[in-house]
Amino acid sequence: MTDKKEKRLCKWKKDDYAERFNKLRSIVADPTCVCRKCGRAANGKRYLCKPVSLEEASG
After folding, report:
1. pLDDT recorded at residue 1
2. pLDDT band at residue 16, thresholds of 50, 70 and 90?
3. Which residue of 2, 23, 27, 31 has the smallest Cβ count within 10 Å?
4. Mean of the per-residue pLDDT values for the chain?
């Protein structure tokens, strides 16, 4: 059995937001990083395609 790699938040489509809203809520709660490409925020770098920590981005 292989684990399917989770899709990055940056690649989510409109339908993904509706179908996986509870997952989205957990990903964006207390964000620690932002994507340099699209500006989405998340609480882990693994959810974004070009992550940078919010501390780095502000500084």
Report:
1. 46
2. very high
3. 2
4. 90
Q: Is the pLDDT of residue 35 over 60?
A: yes
Q: What is the dihedral of CA 23, 13, 53, 55, to 10 degrees?
A: -90
Cα Rg for the chain, rounded, in angstroms?
A: 12
Question: What sign has the CA pseudo-torsion 40, 7, 17, 20?
Answer: negative
Rounded distance between C-alpha atoms, residue 7 and residue 59, angstroms: 29
- Decide if 25 contacts 43 (C-beta within 8 A): no
Q: Give the number of C-alpha atoms closer than 13 A to the C-alpha of residue 46, restricted to the C-beta side.
A: 3
